[in-house]
Design brief:
The protein is an alpha/beta fold. Helix content is 37%, strand content 21%. The chain is built from 16 helices and 19 strands. The longest helix has 17 residues, at 258-274. It is globular, with a radius of gyration of 21 Å.
């Protein structure tokens, strides 16, 4: 059996630990969450803000994000007012003005919103905070809906990083996944952003899409050579139709098998490295001039619900439907549907749907997984159940994916492609109750 076949098992992506299916939601209420928020804030006023803007005009059938499909742009203003009202609820609990280090607009499609509405939203946030000197403001952009006015408005508000959803450049694949954009639109957004002064352009690419073959990856990378984004997220397509009905628009037989899918990644990785990109963490690549690579080199790289970031704040707050907050001792997720979220705000209550208070063991395991995801190594703690972890790592060690020593665990070059599997060894909650049904996407 090949390593690909052996390790292509369902496994978490570890944007958090514990992963959401293992949250003990009955152990936390709204007062517990706010208590943890205030406790962390009183030690350090710096925070990161993630604002979820869920609206899209069309459903991209590969997408696993929380979204609301509509062409009715009258939804914009009420939603923004709800987000600002939610932020006000947090402000009422802070003893001082927060210091905003990181602001990210995610979706959905943030550029679904009219530039003036985005300006109203962001100005409403910025008027209530101090802005950190080393701040990073970023937003996700759909090439087909991002105008020069969007780019100018957000630049004037302090945004300097943009993430462009490319996925693939082949027209047939884009049509199958119901994503309508052109190469010219991607070029326009990229070139206009750079001309305005954005210093970091990220592009999202996906391997493993329906009907995707080697020639498609090569074709897409030829355009990456032309655009040369500062960062690239080269994601594995996560096929989870039991969670996302839109993915039932195509058949599993239309997807590349495990070996073919991995070959797509290896081709893309090789071509990116030839262009001067360095692999950073899992699924990410960066030029040496970008802060993401530099933070990885200095050991400052961090991973949270927004993905990889060069900045770390102990407190992250998520605003909007389905957004997740993190105090490092607790997680809290908002109500997922727009209507229920707005109803909660109209009733004047924090729109939390579920949360989790991390135990001390959770915090230790979380740090191990973060270390592996960001630095490819982790050091043993005195409290670790080392025998259990070593038993789970027996096969990864034998297969040359990790090296285990008295000081800790080191991921090998070959092991970088199997990070999710390696992290499983430190996932005590997973092993306490291994899923019997479909919960996670495939690791490879």
């Amino acid at each position: 059996m090949s390593l690909l076949e052996k390790y292509d098992i369902p496994a978490p992506r570890y944007t958090s630990y514990p992963t959401v299916p293992y949250w003990e939601t009955d152990q936390m209420e709204e007062r517990d969450w706010m208590r943890e928020v205030v406790r962390v804030f009183e030690k350090d006023r710096r925070l990161s803000l993630y604002i979820h803007l869920p609206f899209c005009e069309k459903l991209c059938t590969y997408c696993g994000c929380n979204k609301h499909i509509t062409r009715n742009h009258a939804v914009e203003s009420p939603y923004i007012q709800s987000v600002l009202a939610e932020w006000t609820m947090y402000l009422e609990h802070f003893p001082e003005k927060p210091v905003l280090t990181e602001l990210h607009l995610g979706g959905g499609t943030p550029t679904f919103f009219h530039p003036e509405n985005l300006k109203h939203l962001v100005q409403g946030i910025l008027a209530t905070v101090e802005i950190a000197e080393d701040h990073e403001f970023s937003f996700e952009a759909h090439p087909a809906s991002t105008t020069r006015e969007h780019l100018e408005t957000l630049y004037d508000l302090g945004f300097r990083r943009i993430s462009i959803g490319v996925q693939d450049v082949d027209e047939h694949i884009l049509r199958v996944i119901n994503r309508f954009q052109t190469i010219e639109e991607v070029s326009f957004v990229t070139e206009t952003a750079r001309a305005l002064g954005y210093h970091s352009v990220n592009m999202d690419l996906i391997f493993g899409l329906p009907f995707q073959k080697q020639e498609h990856i090569i074709h897409t990378m030829s355009y990456i050579n032309r655009w040369m984004p500062d960062r690239i997220a080269f994601y594995s397509y996560a096929h989870v139709p039991w969670l996302k009905n839109g993915q039932r628009a195509f058949d599993e037989n239309d997807l590349p098998d495990t070996v073919s899918k991995r070959a797509l990644y290896e081709t893309g990785k090789r071509m990116l490295e030839e262009l001067g990109y360095h692999d950073v963490g899992m699924d990410h690549f960066s030029l040496s001039t970008d802060a993401l690579y530099q933070s990885a080199e200095t050991g400052q790289l961090h991973r949270n619900f927004m993905g990889y970031t060069p900045l770390f704040t102990p407190l992250s707050i998520g605003l909007g439907a389905s957004a997740i907050g993190d105090t490092f001792t607790a997680f809290a997720q908002n109500i997922k549907t727009v209507s229920e979220y707005e109803a909660a705000m109209a009733a004047g209550r924090l729109p939390l749907q579920r949360g989790h208070l991390l135990t001390q063991e959770d915090q230790w395991n979380r740090q191990h997984i973060l270390n592996l995801m960001c630095r490819y190594r982790t050091a043993w703690l005195a409290e670790d159940p080392r025998d259990l972890i070593l038993a789970r790592l027996t096969e990864p060690v034998a297969d040359g994916l990790v090296v285990v020593g008295p000081e800790g665990v080191q991921v090998t070059e070959q092991g970088k492609g199997f990070l999710r599997n390696i992290c499983l060894a430190f996932d005590a909650r997973y092993w306490s109750k291994v899923p019997s049904g479909k919960v996670f996407s495939q690791a490879v």
